[in-house]
Design a protein that fits this description.
The structure holds two protein chains of two kinds. Chain A is an all-alpha fold. Chain A contains eleven helices and no strands. Classes of the chains: A mainly alpha, B mainly beta.
Chain lengths: ~260, ~400
């Protein structure tokens, strides 16, 4: 598996897209910090970009890589290597290279602008951790979709739909249910509802760290009580990990049955 | 001419004030004894030292002056240190400490009733239940006092400066820290409150009730439990105050409740959960205020009519505006909005497209407070954008027709 991982990382590092992605974040970081010198504020703006863009890029990259390297993968499958090793190697390879682009691309400008001297370092670290999680989660989900659809166009469509659902539609449904059940205490419900969407969970996690809880009213109090404690933090990291582990397990399950 | 001169000298000799010294080795050892023997116009000089006294009566026009900051310790008794009822007296230069907490009696460092023309200056209060309580008095000046408490909860704390039914008072350059209310005015008229610093009080930095025709300016209110409350008053003039860091579940910079015909001008509201909370206020003018980085810059609760907002800055607030009921006849004109997305082709500094300060999401959150949880999600940005393009849910007449492009720098 490590060998496959190594080769897929080499492959990706040679590809133009990793550099484009890296340069995009580098530019974004520098422009943001150039426009306002405040590292704290830049973290908030960055959050807006990251929670939407990272999942999208992760999804598209994952699905593209799977379909593009399909022939090579089939060649590998003919060799005496375990199926799961091949695909896990590829999966970890993509996720790692994306994460690398992100961490380096954002890390460099923030360090240049004095991240270590500012109090925002923890918020920034949390942002990077959450973004990395989102990478791993959405590449895994994209692989799930790719494995279950042979048709390239269909696969692409489903993947975009999946992103659209989690990034936009889910929140719409969430809002509708909040309005519909306005008369009931909704603190616990919202807490659970956010757990079921990694994008929402990441957003809330970062917002609460930036002390937005006072704005969130009663529900905010419930959230603060939960996420503010070490238990809540561990819990939400656990849920994010589950969001990685479950799709990965599903990939392996599918692999065993799939006829290539 | 010569005679007149002699007469003048003689009269000044006769009416010359006696000076009574108080110290541990003096003839008079207690401040309370000195104030009893003093006549109108006398001066009591209290030398350095610690005096264990309470209920020092002041009933004549005398000056009680602490030299080198003498300390009066109430030893935790539930009694006021100075009890004053006189015209034309002065108390200055004391440190008053350790007044006990009482639920049945109103105690304070300096307690003034039915007095005129008095001056309370440069006193320091440490660990007192209340700093000043002043009732039914006129023409008093309270300046340069420092009041600090260690209040933990509202029921076990008193107020820094508490005025009740007073008129023509001046409260200047005082510091109140860690009390229940920093400054509390009830039924106070024609008074001015300026240059005070009110930080970390557990309830309000400034609390106004039924007090008309007052002016407060250049005060600082920072990190108070719930900010400042100005209630049930008319003709208030507030300008150049700063309201900062009042951040918490039920905090606001300035709470206005039933305030009419007032002017709120050139104030700074920064990092408050709610910048200005407006509840049933009519015919007020809000001009040149700077509202930066608040949760809600302005929140309307209940009916408010004929309020006029001009030359205000709205910068980086999570919500610029929110309101519950109809917002008739409230005018926003020529403000700067950091959220403004229009353009200025003729370069006259005024945006060519009107700005709609009310976001759809802001309307949604007023009806369903729980939905704030979706703040800063993509879905919310999308619905806000579509509403901005073609307003359906937000009132069409709520617009700023002359949004100013650049930040209005100065607070005049």
């Amino acid at each position: 598996m490590l060998k496959i991982l190594k080769y897929s990382i080499y492959d990706l590092l040679r590809s133009r897209w990793s550099y484009v992605y890296f340069l995009f974040y580098l530019l974004l970081g520098f422009v943001l910090l150039f426009l306002n010198n405040d590292v704290n504020k830049a973290v908030i703006t960055l959050m807006n970009v990251i929670i939407v863009l990272t999942p999208l890029i992760g999804t598209i990259f994952g699905i593209m890589y799977f379909y593009n390297s399909k022939e090579f993968t089939e060649l590998l499958l003919a060799q005496p290597i375990k199926r799961s090793n091949i695909f896990m190697g590829q999966y970890v390879g993509i996720s790692l290279s994306l994460t690398l682009s992100l961490v380096l691309g954002l890390g460099i400008p923030f360090i240049v602008y004095g991240l270590f001297r500012s109090a925002a370092i923890f918020d920034f670290t949390l942002l990077l951790v959450v973004a990395s999680f989102l990478n791993f989660i959405f590449v895994a989900l994209a692989y799930n979709i790719a494995l279950s659809t042979e048709n390239k166009i269909k696969g692409f469509g489903y993947a975009i739909l999946m992103w659209l659902f989690l990034a936009v539609v889910y929140d719409g449904l969430f809002l509708i249910s909040l309005i519909a059940f306005n008369d009931y205490p909704l603190g616990k419900f919202s807490l659970i509802a956010t757990m079921f969407n990694p994008i929402d969970l990441s957003r809330i996690l970062i917002l609460l760290k930036l002390d937005f809880s006072a704005l969130l009213g009663y529900t905010g109090a419930v959230f603060k009580e939960f996420f503010g404690t070490a238990f809540g933090m561990v819990m939400s990291m656990l849920v994010l990990s589950l969001w990685v582990i479950l799709p990965v397990l599903n990939i392996n399950r599918k692999l065993r049955k799939k006829d290539f | 001419m010569k005679h007149l001169f002699i007469v003048l000298i003689l009269t000044s000799f006769i009416s010359h004030a006696t000076i009574i010294d108080v110290c541990a080795t003096c003839e008079v050892k207690k401040i309370g004894d000195a104030t009893l023997i003093a006549k109108d116009g006398d001066i009591i000089r209290v030398q350095q030292g610690v005096y264990y006294e309470t209920e020092i009566q002041i009933s004549h026009a005398i000056q009680v002056i602490g030299i080198n900051n003498p300390i009066i310790d109430a030893q935790g008794k539930q009694k006021s240190v100075f009890a004053c009822k006189a015209n034309g007296f002065t108390i200055s230069g004391f440190t008053i400490r350790n007044i006990g907490l009482s639920h049945t009696k109103e105690t304070a460092g300096i307690y003034v009733t039915k007095s005129r023309n008095f001056r309370l200056k440069k006193n320091t209060f440490i660990n007192v239940y209340g700093g000043f309580v002043i009732q039914r008095s006129t023409y008093g000046v309270i300046t340069e006092n420092k009041i600090s408490g260690t209040a933990k909860n509202e029921t076990k704390a008193g107020n820094g400066i508490h005025l009740y039914r007073c008129k023509n008072m001046r409260i200047e350059k005082n510091e109140t820290i860690g009390m229940r209310d920093g400054i509390y005015l009830e039924y106070v008229e024609k008074s001015s409150i300026s240059n005070n610093i009110n930080d970390n009080n557990i309830r309000y930095g400034l609390h106004f009730m039924f007090s008309d025709n007052n002016e407060f300016h250049h005060n600082q209110f920072k990190d108070n439990g719930s900010g400042c409350a100005v209630m049930y008053s008319d003709h208030i003039n507030m300008h150049h105050n700063s309201f900062r860091d009042n951040w918490g579940m039920a905090s606001y910079g300035l709470l206005l409740k039933e305030i009419n015909d007032s002017v709120i001008e050139s104030n700074l509201f920064e990092k408050n959960t709610v910048g200005i909370n407006i509840d049933s206020c009519n015919r007020n003018k809000y001009k040149n205020n700077h509202l930066n980085s608040n949760g809600w810059a302005i929140k309307f609760q209940g009916a408010a009519t004929y309020n006029f907002f001009e030359f205000n800055n709205f910068i980086n607030n999570s919500f610029d505006l929110s309101f519950k009921s109809s917002l008739k006849n409230n005018i926003f004109e020529a403000n700067h909005w950091s959220e403004y997305s229009g353009y200025d082709l003729d370069k006259d500094g005024i945006g060519d497209v009107p700005h709609r300060p009310l976001k759809l999401f802001s309307v949604v959150t007023t009806h369903t407070p729980d939905s704030v949880i979706l703040l800063r999600s993509l879905f919310v940005d999308i619905i806000n954008f579509s509403e901005q393009v073609s307003p359906i849910f937000t009132p069409e007449n709520l617009i700023d027709t002359k949004p100013i492009i650049k930040v209005i720098d100065a607070r005049y």
